[in-house]
Structures are given as structure tokens and as C-alpha cells.
Amino acid sequence: MPTSINTALIGKEYGPYPFTVERGKIKEFARAIGDLNPFYLDDRVGAASEWGDLIAPPTFAVTFRDETADTGAMLRDLGADISRILHGEQEFELFRPLQPGQTYLCRARIVDIYEKSGRSGPMAFVVRETTITDRTNDVVAAMRHITIVRL
Amino acid sequence: MKYAKVYFDDVNVGDELPPLVKGPIQQIQLTRYAGASGDFNPIHQDDEFARAAGMGGVFAHGMLSMGFVAQAVTDWAGAGAVRKLGVRFATLVRLKDVVTCRGRVVGKSSTDDVNLVELEVWAENQKTEKVVTGRATVILAARPSSPPPASPAPPASPARLRASTETPARPTGCSPR
Hints:
The complex is a heterodimer of chains A (151) and B (177).
Chain A lengths: L12 E8 L2 H11 L4 H4 L1 H6 L22 H8 L6 E10 L8 E16 L2 E13 L5 E12 L1
Antiparallel strand pairs in A: 1-3, 2-5, 3-4, 4-5
Chain B lengths: L19 E3 L4 H11 L9 H6 L9 H16 L4 E8 L9 E13 L2 E11 L5 E10 L18 H9 L11
Antiparallel strand pairs in B: 1-3, 2-5, 3-4, 4-5
């Protein structure tokens, strides 16, 4: 049964929601990738570094999830089933490394939805941008996700 | 400093990053990545579910492959060096696939004392199909012992002499690794 995507969602904002980075989560994430860089894993190396503590790997902000504002929430709004989605593209801009103990604020926004026909039939592309700020409202990172919904 | 392995001055357009080989991909890694990232889509865990969804079986999270590519970049440029990383997921990564991440320098620029290096990055499977393609921007430090520019040397002053004695002696043209 073909799904139809609610394009009225363009412009919809999610959040802001806070996310606090846990030290153990950085290590778990790096190990899951198999990236054993000591700046992600070794507290002493982190303490002696220019950042004064561990830093997170470049793609870590993908863990910044919130039930009210994550991909699941967006899929409910789109009327799309999780078995129909693929990850199309992903981009991170990092102005400062993310660090343990810090609380960040995430704001996401659907900036575009368009349909295209691919090898496996019609697909909708949902473009979402997330801005991550620190307690002083400085932007520390930004993400751009393209979720593909197989229609 | 961040154990920088490469200095801006030593990088040339066309240079290739050392390839990073990951895998063969096992289910346990996808399960670990689900837990670590919070992406519990059963399409990466449950083969029956993935087949019923028309995907022909379980496949890896795109973000895991992107994590591999990020590692290839930071292994070369240093942790914390990535300013921007953007990828497109081109082909699904399956169980038992071996993923090789590669990169190439496509540009260099310096503005306001920030040295940026542009990279083309990609990952390919054992059939040399590109599974991920993208671009990265990294910030690299200038080599601390860069020789002064080839201009007429100003007269030596006590300050200059003092500064030069504080510079660790290191043969130029040889990057410390």
C-alpha cells in the first residue's frame, strides 16, 4: 500500500530539548565503531589534552535523541513506518568538540520534503536540520539529515 | 596538542589518507552500535523483519559506516580536527562485508590563522562498490618549526635570538611523527 507523505510538515520544528553527554556513552559509542582513539577513551589523555577532558567522536551527536523530537517522532508525523525508511545523507558541522558532563540544547526543523523515483520505486526525501547549542547559546554543532521514505 | 599526525605545511592536494579497513561486519557490531547510538530499528537486527520489509535481509546502520569514515579522517588528521563531515549512503553494507575507508586531499586554504584542508572521502566494500561518498573539512596545525619565509632577513635583534633559542632544534623538511 503506497504511503503518502505529509508535505505540510515542511517548517515543523522539534525541541528544543536538552541532552547531557555522559562520559561512558562517549566510550561506548567509540568502541561500538571500533575507534579506540585515546582522546575518546582515556580519561588521563583527555585531562591532559587542550580540551581538558575527553571529546566525542565526530558523529556522536547522532545519539542526541529525545522521544518528542527524534526520528521516531518525525516518522509518526510523516505517517511513515520504520520498516520503510533509509538513511540518505548525513552531515555534521562541528565548531567545538562535544564533551562529557556538558548539557546541550537541540533544535530540529524539517527544511524540505520532496519526492523522487529511484531504482526501487517512488521515495520521499525528508531533509531535517538540527542545531546544537551550549548553555551560553553558542552553536557548537549542526547536523543535516536526509531520511528516505520508500513509498 | 592532539597527537596531530600531520601538519598543514606537509599536506599537498592529491595526497591520500592511509586506508582504514573495517569488518567483516558481524551482527554483534550492529547490535552494539544500536545500543550505543540509540537507533534500534529492527531492520539492522532482525533478518526476518528486514526481509519482510523488502530489504533482502539485515544491513548495517549508515551511521556506523559514517563512523568508520570519520575514524579514517581522525586517524590521519587527529581527534578533534574535523570541522565538517558530510556523506551520502550509496550502497547498503551487509553482514560479512569488509569496508575500506579512503580519502584524498582536494584543497587547502588558510584564513585568520585557521588552516583548513578539504578532503574527498569514501568507503568501499570488498567488491570495490562505493558504500559511502562524501566530503570532509579538517583543521590542521601549522608545523611549529616552519622555516621563515624566503625574504631578506631582518637584522638580528636580541628578541629574535632569544626566540630562536627557545625553538626546539629539529631538522626542517622532516615531519615529526
